[in-house]
Design brief:
Blueprint: H1 3-48, H2 51-56, E1 58-66, E2 71-74, H3 75-91, E3 96-107, E4 111-123, E5 129-143, E6 146-157, H4 160-165
Parallel strand pairs: 1-6
Antiparallel strand pairs: 1-2, 3-4, 4-5, 5-6
């Protein structure tokens, strides 16, 4: 007879904690959907040469960190440097594309820290496709305007093999 109250107590505890766990998992899934949409927008702007659209994905006080160059500086400086490539892409002079894969995705309702590799593909002046695989980390903030990148840390070059290995992990 005493085992029934123990089982009932266990069942009650399980039912009480299940909705909280479910709600947290749902919040995480919703956040990841929003972030996937954010990265899809970044890809679209690069592919279409939409400089203003790309700039809108960046926080006005954002920072670019380069591990290979051992530097950090305002993202606005990087945007000024990249603008010519967006203009050339929009004009059809070059083609560009960027894809993202993730190894870690942490966050809450207003912050996200994403780690992975991006693949930047582009045509050179001779029309030949080039590819750059880059290990990166991104720190994003969400406001009423949506997600904005606050810090982009381009850590180091990545390999094609590392890129392929992330194919199955991207939804973490």
């Amino acid at each position: 007879m005493k085992t029934i109250p123990i089982y009932l107590s266990f069942l009650c505890c399980l039912l009480i904690h299940l909705p909280a766990g479910y709600a947290a998992e749902q919040e995480k899934n919703d956040r990841l959907k929003e972030l996937d949409a954010y990265w899809a927008e970044v890809s679209r702007t690069v592919r279409e040469g939409d400089f203003e659209g790309y700039k809108a994905t960046c926080h006005e006080q954002g920072v670019l960190v380069s591990g290979s160059k051992r530097t950090s500086y305002p993202l606005s400086k990087a945007l000024a440097r990249w603008k010519k490539d967006f203009i050339a892409t929009k004009a059809g002079t070059i083609k560009a594309n960027v894809e993202f894969r993730f190894s870690q995705r942490f966050g809450d309702e207003t912050t996200a820290h994403e780690t992975g590799i991006f693949l930047y593909s582009f045509t050179d002046q001779d029309g030949q496709w080039k590819q750059e695989h880059v290990h990166f980390q991104a720190l994003l903030l969400k406001s009423k305007e949506g997600w904005k990148i606050m810090m982009e840390y381009q850590q180091s070059k990545a390999t094609q093999a590392e890129w392929v290995a992330l194919a199955g992990q991207s939804k973490k």
